[in-house]
Design goal:
The protein is of the alpha/beta class. The protein has 2 domains: 2-142 and 304-332, 3-Layer(aba) Sandwich (Rossmann fold), CATH 3.40.50; 151-295, Rossmann fold, CATH 3.40.50. It is built from 13 helices and 11 strands. The chain has a 6-stranded mixed beta sheet with strand order 8-7-9-6-5-10, with helices on both faces. Strands 3-2-1-4-11 form a 5-stranded parallel beta sheet, sandwiched between helices. Helix 3 (49-58) links the parallel strand 2 (42-46) and strand 3. Helix 4 packs across helix 5 (96-103) and helix 8 packs across helix 9 (220-235).
Length: 333
C-alpha cells in the first residue's frame, strides 16, 4: 500500500525512539530487525540482553546486536524511574519498594522511559492483553489535554476506490471503549479526525453513525449520537462532522443525497465513528473478511504520548507498520 510506504518514509526523517517491551516474542524481534533495517525508528528493546541476543542469533537476525537493549538488572536509571513513580502515585500510597518491583515488568519500564523523555512511544500487545498494555499508560502517561477517553482506529484499505478517500477509510472506536457517553463519543470523533490528518494525510469527513439518519428514528441511542455530533462540532469547528447518519447515507452519494440532502459529508465520508465498541469492532472485521479490506491498526488515540496496542494475533508486518505509525504520532505530540 502506497500510504504505508509514505508513512515509513516520513518516519525515517523523524528518528523517533520507539520502545518494544516484548523482546521475548519472536515476531517482535523480527519486527525490530526489519525496522532497524528500514530505519523507520530508533528501536529500543527491553529484556535480558544475553537472552535477547541468543534468541536473535537462533532466528538468524543480524541487526539486533546493533539495537539498544534495556535490561532492568543493569539499567542505570531504574532508581530514578522508581522515584518518579512514587512522586506521581504517592496519593495512591505507592512506595519505592513496590515501584522497583513494578519496573521489573517491561510494560511499566517502557512507560517510565516515555514519561522520563528517554523514549518517544511504545508498541506492545503481541504477547499481552490490551488491559495489561494500557494500565501503566493510564497511570503514568495519562490522556492528552482536553481528552478523557482513549480509543482505537483502523485504517481500512478497500479494494473499491469509490469509497472514502480513494478507498481509504478510518473506523473508530473498534478497540477500546465499550459504551462511550455522548461527550466521549465526540472526543473519539475529534481524535480520529486528527489521526486522519496526521497519519493518513487526508482531510477528515466524519460521519457519526446510527441506525437513524437526521431524525428518521427516535430512540435514546440515537439521541446520544445527535448530542455527540453537536459536541464534536463545537470541539473541532475546523473539521467536517455530521450525523446522526446511517452507514449507507454516509458512504453512498446517491443515498446520502436522498436521506441527508443538506449534509456536507453525506455519501463522501472517509471517517466512520461508530456509536459503541460492539458495532465498531463487528463492522471492521466484517469489512476486512467479506470485502477483503486491509485493516491496519488499531492505532490508539487520546494518550498524551503514543502507546499502541497490537492484537495478539498480529503478524511481523503489523508490528513493523505500527512502529512507523507510532513514530509519526510521536512527532505530533
Amino acid at each position: 500500500m502506497e500510504l504505508i510506504q509514505q508513512i515509513k518514509e516520513e518516519a525515517k526523517k523523524l528518528n523517533k525512539r520507539i520502545v518494544l517491551p516484548e523482546s521475548h516474542d519472536e515476531r517482535t524481534l523480527k519486527a525490530a530487525d526489519i525496522a532497524y533495517e528500514e530505519n523507520s525508528a530508533k528501536i529500543i528493546l527491553i529484556g535480558n540482553k544475553a537472552k535477547v541476543l541468543k534468541d536473535a542469533e537462533k532466528l538468524g537476525l543480524k541487526n539486533i546486536e546493533k539495537i539498544e537493549i534495556v535490561d532492568y538488572e543493569t539499567y542505570p536509571k531504574i532508581n530514578e524511574y522508581a522515584d518518579l513513580m512514587v512522586e506521581l502515585r504517592k496519593h495512591k500510597g505507592l512506595k519505592k519498594e513496590s515501584a522497583l518491583k513494578l519496573l521489573k515488568n517491561p510494560l511499566y519500564l517502557s512507560i517510565l522511559m516515555i514519561k522520563s523523555g528517554d523514549a518517544d512511544g511504545e508498541v506492545a500487545g503481541a504477547a499481552n492483553s490490551t488491559g495489561n498494555v494500557l494500565l501503566p499508560a493510564f497511570q503514568y502517561i495519562k490522556t492528552a489535554p482536553g481528552i478523557s477517553v482513549v480509543s482505537g482506529t483502523f485504517l481500512m484499505f478497500l479494494k473499491d476506490e469509490n469509497f472514502g478517500h480513494k478507498g481509504l477509510m478510518l473506523f473508530a472506536d473498534c478497540a477500546v471503549h465499550p459504551d462511550p457517553t455522548a461527550s466521549e463519543l465526540a472526543q473519539i470523533a475529534v481524535s480520529t479526525g486528527k489521526t486522519a490528518r496526521a497519519i493518513a494525510g487526508i482531510e477528515p469527513k466524519i460521519a457519526m453513525l446510527s441506525f437513524s439518519t437526521k431524525g428518521s428514528a427516535k430512540h435514546e441511542m440515537v439521541d446520544k449520537v445527535v448530542e455527540a455530533t453537536e459536541i464534536a462540532k463545537e470541539m473541532a469547528p475546523d473539521m467536517e462532522i455530521d450525523g446522526e447518519m446511517q452507514a449507507d447515507a454516509a458512504i453512498i452519494e446517491s443515498i446520502g443525497k436522498k436521506k441527508a440532502p443538506d449534509s456536507n459529508i453525506a455519501g463522501e465520508a472517509n471517517v466512520l465513528v461508530f456509536p459503541d465498541l460492539q458495532s465498531g469492532n463487528i463492522s471492521y472485521k466484517l469489512v476486512q473478511r467479506l470485502a477483503g479490506a486491509e485493516a491496519i491498526g488499531p492505532i490508539l488515540q487520546g494518550m498524551a504520548a503514543p502507546v499502541n496496542d497490537l492484537s495478539r494475533g498480529c503478524s511481523v508486518s503489523d508490528i513493523v507498520n505500527l512502529i512507523a505509525i507510532t513514530s509519526i504520532q510521536a512527532s505530533q505530540k
